[in-house]
Amino acid sequence: MKIARPAAIAAILIAILGWSPSAPAGEGASATSANGEEQQDRDSNAQCLACHSEAGLANPPRPDMHLEGLANHLISAERFEKSVHGEEACKDCHGESYVKYPHEANSRYQIKMCPECHKSAGRKKLAEFQQTLHYKNHPHNFSCVSCHNPHTLQKAKQLGSAKKLIAQDNGMCLDCHDSDQRFAQFTTRARPNLVEVHKWQPNPELHWKSVRCIDCHTPATDGSGTSHLILGKDKAERDCVACHSATSSLRTRLYRYFAAQGQIEEAGFLNGAVLSEAYVVGATRNALLDKATWVITALLLAGLAVHGLLRVVAGRLRKGRK
């Protein structure tokens, strides 16, 4: 009976207090609360996308909507959900004033700027960006969103492929530098021909499909992130060996995330993460094959030397017999 009494007391306490040894108190409530907030954000975003989408423009949910203006502010729900901000609520950046309709006249002034959330990294990147020609020549026209679309931008780990990352990141540059209309929004001078500017580079168009503009047009970092100090053509990387070598800078630039993830068994290959998606002369060679080539070459030279020596010896022996 003495043994059974503590067990009975414990059972009573569990029944009264609802205590469970499997989870700390409040953990279930926190999870429920988090799920509830996520659902609220999804519901809130659905209300915004009911108008700001192709479907909303085709079938306006309200009769008093300004469709011409709406056409310039459409968002793809699918792409937004996959983006770096896909788990955020629209109002987190756009402010509560956009929740009402019609939107308040000064609503756009309440939109948060990127450094308000990206505090530490944002300050560093902003300081780098302010040293670029983009900012110095157009301080009032350029901001983070001039290049980074907050509704579609994805990280490398979300894209899962270097080629997809190249297409996304180069698209930011080519939106202006390969478009006369977009280029004219920032300057009156003629847009330079990209192929002519890069004619020093062998097959530039192939490079653009295999490497990002910023891999040459930003200074090297310690591998912790991408610099936003965009370099002009006079300071951009022109040393081919920087990429085409055993110590290729691509490993700490374009393939930084993929190298860290170890997506390929290197099996003797240098820069195996690069080899998973591209063959880069000088960077993705196999160290074992390199050694084997040297051994074969040495054996070939030794064989030729022995063969030559034997011919000399044989020739002298024949002369001696005569």
Describe this structure in words.
With 322 residues, this protein is an all-alpha fold. Helices cover 50% and strands 0% of the residues. The protein has 18 helices and no strands. The protein has helices spanning 4-17, 27-49, 54-58, 67-70, 77-82, 90-94, 119-129, 133-137, 144-147, 156-159, 162-177, 180-183, 194-197, 204-210, 214-217, 256-261, 272-275, 287-321. It is elongated, with a radius of gyration of 32 Å. The termini are far apart.
What's the helix and strand layout?
Elements: H1 4-17, H2 27-49, H3 54-58, H4 67-70, H5 77-82, H6 90-94, H7 119-129, H8 133-137, H9 144-147, H10 156-159, H11 162-177, H12 180-183, H13 194-197, H14 204-210, H15 214-217, H16 256-261, H17 272-275, H18 287-321
Radius of gyration: 32 Å
- From the spread of the alpha carbons, the general shape counts as elongated
* Helicity, as a percent range: 40-55%
What structural class do you assign from the helix and strand content?
mainly alpha
Content of β-strand: under 5%
Note the run of SSEs as H and E: HHHHHHHHHHHHHHHHHH
